[in-house]
Amino acid sequence: MSGQLNMDDRYGRKKSPLRLIPYVIFALLIGWLFWSATHHSNPTVAVNLISFKEINEKSMGITFDITRNDPSQAIDCKLTAVDFDKYVVGEIVHRIPAGDKSLRVTTQIPTRVHSVSADVVRCYPAN
Length: 127
What we know:
Blueprint: H1 7-11, H2 21-40, E1 45-56, E2 59-68, E3 75-82, E4 88-96, E5 102-110, E6 117-125
Antiparallel strand pairs: 1-2, 2-5, 3-4, 3-6
């Protein structure tokens, strides 16, 4: 029995540390996936558009709810109004001062021409 070769020796296979590379890459990708899911599932500012309504030919009203993790932080929200062809015809950055954690905001977006829709592009902590 001692004269017999094992299968790796018989067929010239050698154990290489390179065979572990796919497992390391897989473990890193799974780690990144979990980090990404937890990091992006709890944003610092959450926004929910409630309504928009044209006030007149040159102004669009917008109402949205905002929830922030840190009520002591002021928030800037970029708001846009678009026309029928989806061209941006009005845009403002609306500052929300520090205060309540959750609140409803109603404001107006000045426009160049008649607008048909409005949106909250994004909200972020003010500098």
